[in-house]
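Lecture notes, part 5. Sequence design as translation. It can be helpful to think of inverse folding as translation between two languages: the language of shapes and the language of residues. The source text, in structure tokens, appears below.
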């Protein structure tokens, strides 16, 4: 009997460790004010976050799942990509979120641009963008994300649970809103959200938000309009 012995010619699998310096963003409440300060940094120094590995430490805001999704959507809209989450409860993490990290070693602070010493030149002053409307001829499925910062979003169908719609202007939903609707994401406090049947997980306008837990059952299943009155989100039923 002949016995054949396979001889391994490839080198053994090796694992190596590397350490990288990451920038940590630690939001505070009220989140709307923190996002405004973040926008100041981005406006004065547009490339500040480019190419940096960034971790979000959310221990200071202790977000619910819906609040964490809103926060991540707000960063995504600003082209800030998060590679890890620190300080988030395991119950609020979803598979599509950045991985949980812990045990990092604090190092020296990273210098931010001096916002007072570097005034924005008049030629770079923000100009209102031409408003356009994005029309979705159907429904937004669970897991889908619609981002349109240049104007309104109109959806002829529904927005499923686990889906999100982010608009620079208003959001019009002809069906049921079950997911997340974030209007006025570019600072338009006059933006509104309209839907024929209200079952939202989260609604937000200009950085102010409410989750399903905050909203209660009063408007559930109703045709609803959402707007801002100062620093308050106001819901009213549509006739």
């Amino acid at each position: 009997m002949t016995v054949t012995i396979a001889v391994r010619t490839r080198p053994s699998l090796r694992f190596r460790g590397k350490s990288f310096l990451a920038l940590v963003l630690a939001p505070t409440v009220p989140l709307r004010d923190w996002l405004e300060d973040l926008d100041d940094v981005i406006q004065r120094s547009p490339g500040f976050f480019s190419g940096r590995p960034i971790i979000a430490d959310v221990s200071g805001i202790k977000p619910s799942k819906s609040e964490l999704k809103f926060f991540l959507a707000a960063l995504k809209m600003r082209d800030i990509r998060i590679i890890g989450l620190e300080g988030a409860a395991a119950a609020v993490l979803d598979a599509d979120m950045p991985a949980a990290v812990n045990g990092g070693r604090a190092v020296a602070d990273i210098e931010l641009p001096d916002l007072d010493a570097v005034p924005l030149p008049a030629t770079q002053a923000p100009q209102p963008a031409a408003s356009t409307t994005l029309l979705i001829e159907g429904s937004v499925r669970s897991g889908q994300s619609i981002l349109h910062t240049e104007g309104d979003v109109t959806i002829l169908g529904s927005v499923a649970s686990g889906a999100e719609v982010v608009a620079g202007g208003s959001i019009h939903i002809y069906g049921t809103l079950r997911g997340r609707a974030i209007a006025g994401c570019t600072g338009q406090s006059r933006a509104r959200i309209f839907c024929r049947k209200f079952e939202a997980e989260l609604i937000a306008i200009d950085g102010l938000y409410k989750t399903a837990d905050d909203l209660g059952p009063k408007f559930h299943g109703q045709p609803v309009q959402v707007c801002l009155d100062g620093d308050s989100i106001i819901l009213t039923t549509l006739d």
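The translated text above is only one of many valid answers, since several sequences can fold into similar shapes. The first strand starts at residue 23 and ends at 25.
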